[in-house]
Amino acid sequence: RVDREVLLSVTSSFGGGMGRMREVCGTVSGMAILNGLHVPCTDL
Fold it and tell me: What is the pLDDT of residues 1-44, one digit of tens each?
């Protein structure tokens, strides 16, 4: 389980799209975040 404050901090920059360029919607960004939480990359 991830704390609400951590999630808000991680996702705060996606408010207007990546870098506020309005090119990638928050839904796509959210899917990428959830995918990383569900299937973490462990070989970094």
Answer: 788 988 888 777 776 666 667 677 777 778 888 888 888 777 76
Q: Show the tokens assigned to 33.
A: 């975040």
Write the CB contacts of 14 (distance below 8 Å, at least 6 apart in sequence): 26, 29, 30
Sequence length of the chain is 44
Distance from first CA to last CA of the chain, Å, rounded? Answer: 21
Instruction: Give me the residue spans of the domains in the chain.
Output: 4-38
* Per-residue CA distances from 44 to 12, 32, 38, 40, 41 (Å): 24, 17, 16, 10, 7
